Amino acid sequence: MFEKFTDRARRIIVMSQDEARTLAHDSIGTEHVLLGLLREDEGVGAQVLKGLGLSLEDVRRQVEESRGRGQSAPSGYLPFTPAANEVLQAANQESLGRGLDYIGTEHLLLALTRDRASVAAQVLVKLGVDLDQVGRTTNELLQQYLAK
Questions:
Q1: Whether pTM exceeds 0.90
Q2: Closest Cα partner for 64 from 22, 5, 17?
Q3: Torsions phi, psi of 79, nearest 5?
């Protein structure tokens, strides 16, 4: 499935792993994918999140409050949590549902907000984000790009 990811979406996955290591977590969760989206800075996902007033620092702080910090940064391969795997699958479904053959940052963001019980969704809600608004804003931004 990763072959369907855009270059930006692939960078988000790499940055997600970096975020997990920075927090000394032993796996990549939905919260790390959210942090990766914000770190990427240019894609639709980052634009939507920043347009909602979110900053990488605020989200990282909230993730740390929610999940804590591990004892030491792990080395080697970090697996995805089951929830993060579901997000990757849901991002693929978002893409397919739109008739696309690639997975972009927007699909990752939409998938993150789909599972409202995920750590990423809970972090967003704690920061005052309306998850339905994320979807509306993402779709509006995509429509603007298509209209160009």
A1: yes
A2: 22
A3: -80, 160
Give the dihedral of Cα atoms 63, 6, 94, 44; nearest 10 deg. Answer: 60
Locate 88 and state its tokens: 């990757």
| CA 3 – CA 113 distance, rounded (Å) | 23
The one-character DSSP state at 81 is: P
Does residue 22 sit in helix, strand or coil? Answer: helix
Q: What is the DSSP letter of 30?
A: H
Topology (CATH level 3) of domain 2-147: Double Clp-N motif (1.10.1780)
Amino acid at 114: R
Domain locations in the chain as residue ranges: 2-147
- The amino acid sitting at 132 is D
The answer, yes or no, to whether residue 148 has pLDDT greater than 80, is no
Instruction: Name the residue among 144, 9, 39, 28 with its Cα closest to residue 49.
Output: 39
